[in-house]
UniProtKB/TrEMBL annotation:
Keywords: Signal. Residues 1-21 form the signal peptide. It comes from Algoriphagus aquimarinus. This is Phosphatase PAP2 family protein. Pfam families: PAP2 (PF01569).
Length: 512
């Protein structure tokens, strides 16, 4: 399978950004002066490891040593012989490559967000991680898969940054451009110590996590890692021993993250038909209703029936966040909602269609979790966050998004609630019909969880984030995909789940 090229990703992301809402600032990818460097961030509490010094690296050599001076000479030679293509790579990665790697992840999610079609005999074959080339190819990067990929990437990056910061300010070795004034620095100076290289941590940990999530892209991701590492030398930011120490941290953090991923229950999320049927039967016994898949040919199983059983990041028990019982079909509350949806269907205004289309985030896109990562990146740049603050923000937001998705899917398959197209005679949607139960709305939960964490991080922007989350929720109602209570209750559910993540964030030491 042909691997993505970096230019394709950048073009894809540019197209996505061009469709973005009218934010207060345009997304810029140039180097910038950080609002602060967080000298004490090495003492922050990580997520996967206990402390920043859990991973050990060697003490660096002195900047007056023969070994270091040899490295310095090597860097000077590389810079003097830099090609135009190499200079483009230096400019590409900038001094906050957390956002760059997040961008790469969004491009991969969009590429693999393609639902497997039926076979000739109208049967379906599931993507198989043991045979990623398929057909069909692995993975199908649907919203639950995307939320998980982004969470593991972000959490691993954050823990790696804490470890890097711990040693940076312990050893306080200056960057090459600060040691030798003949070495030019490609970025805006921020006076961060160079050992270990935070860029090397990010390059290695990101390559390993994303390769596990998108195995067919291993060669492409390895090349990105190499390009990123080389750019750190050519920028005058690091010497090779800085990179070696950073790569060691990245390797070890990624291994810890992937060990958790291998046992988080995701491998069982796409359950067999017998399990799905048992969930359907249990819901019918409890409530007297059941969702029916209206696809043709019918898929035997809905999307990831057991995603609600996947290990959460911050919530002790998924049942604590399960939404309350939805209205009984035929009840007064239900009939009221039918009339609301029929009115929307009969009066599809330009604004409602715009909202439905803007938040659609369907097949071939970076999904609702990716949409909120795109939005978040703009604010991280607006407020000039350094790389560890950026990693922290992405980590907590994506933890909340994934936990929200798990809570939502637990609710979906517990209630197995039918969608409007199934219950309203002659009803049509303007945005397709997803292959899983209706209540609650995934868009609503993902969006509310993201908005809640972003509001915690940027309270001055909270009204903007909350407005967008509510708009994302209602977009699914305007599209005819969801009941209004799917959206309103889902928004509450996402906010409630995010509070667990925010409580963790409040105790990590970053706000002290």
């Amino acid at each position: 399978m042909k691997l993505l090229q970096l230019t394709i990703i950048l073009i894809t992301m540019a197209m996505m950004t061009s469709c973005n809402m009218d934010l207060e600032t345009e997304l810029e990818y140039e180097s910038y002066e950080f609002s602060g460097i967080d000298e004490n961030a090495g003492s922050w509490k990580p997520i996967l490891i206990s402390n920043g010094n859990d991973i050990t690296i060697d003490e660096p050599t002195s900047i007056s040593s023969a070994e270091y001076l040899s490295e310095l000479s090597e860097v000077k030679s590389m810079i003097s012989a830099m090609s135009s293509d190499q200079r483009k790579q230096v400019n590409l990665w900038t001094n906050n490559s957390v956002i760059r790697w997040n961008e790469v992840a969004l491009g991969l999610i969009a590429k693999y967000n393609l639902i497997p079609g039926p076979n000739v005999d109208e049967s379906y074959t599931l993507p198989n991680p043991a045979n990623p080339e398929g057909p069909p190819v692995f993975p199908f990067a649907h919203p639950p898969y995307a939320s998980r990929a982004l969470a593991y990437l972000s959490v691993a990056q954050y823990d790696g940054m804490i470890s890097a910061w711990h040693y940076k300010f312990m050893y306080d070795r200056p960057s090459p451009y600060m040691v030798d004034p003949e070495i030019p620095y490609a970025y805006v100076p921020n006076n961060l110590p160079s050992y270990p290289s935070e860029g090397a941590v990010l390059a290695t940990v990101s390559r390993k996590i994303l390769t596990a999530m998108f195995p067919l892209e291993a060669e492409y991701l390895l090349q990105l890692e190499k390009d990123h590492l080389e750019s750190l030398l050519l920028a005058g930011e690091n010497v090779p021993s800085d990179l070696d120490a950073g790569k060691k941290i990245g390797e070890e953090i990624a291994s810890i993250a992937l060990a958790r991923a291998s046992n988080d229950g995701m491998k069982y999320a796409q359950a067999p038909k017998a399990v799905s049927d048992s969930l359907r039967a249990a819901a019918f016994d409890r409530f007297g209703w059941q969702w029916e898949n209206l696809e043709s040919p019918v898929r035997p199983v809905g999307l990831t029936p057991l995603f609600g059983k996947v290990k959460m990041w911050s919530v002790p028990n998924v049942e604590d966040t399960r939404a309350p019982v939805p209205p009984t079909p035929g009840s007064e509350a239900f009939q009221k909602d039918v009339k609301i949806l029929e009115d929307y269907a009969d009066n599809v205004t330009h604004e409602r269609r715009r909202i439905a289309n803007f938040w659609q985030d369907g097949l071939g896109t970076y999904t609702p979790p990716g949409h909120w990562n795109d939005i978040a990146g703009e604010y991280f740049l607006k407020y000039k966050l350094n790389s560890i603050r950026t990693a922290r923000a992405f980590a907590y937001m994506n933890m909340a998004i994934m936990d929200g998705g798990i809570s939502c899917w637990d609710t979906k398959y517990y209630y197995y609630y039918p969608r409007p197209i199934q219950m309203i005679k002659g009803f049509e949607t303007i945005a397709g019909t997803p292959n899983f139960p209706s209540y609650t709305s995934g868009h609503s939960v993902f969006s509310a969880a993201a908005a809640e964490v972003l509001t915690y991080l940027f309270p001055q922007e909270g009204s903007v984030f909350q407005k967008w989350a509510e708009e994302a929720a209602m977009s699914r109602v305007y599209g005819g995909i969801h009941w209004t209570f799917d959206a309103t209750v889902g928004t509450t559910q996402g906010r409630d789940v995010a509070q667990y993540t925010i409580e963790v964030a409040k105790t990590d030491g970053a706000d002290n």
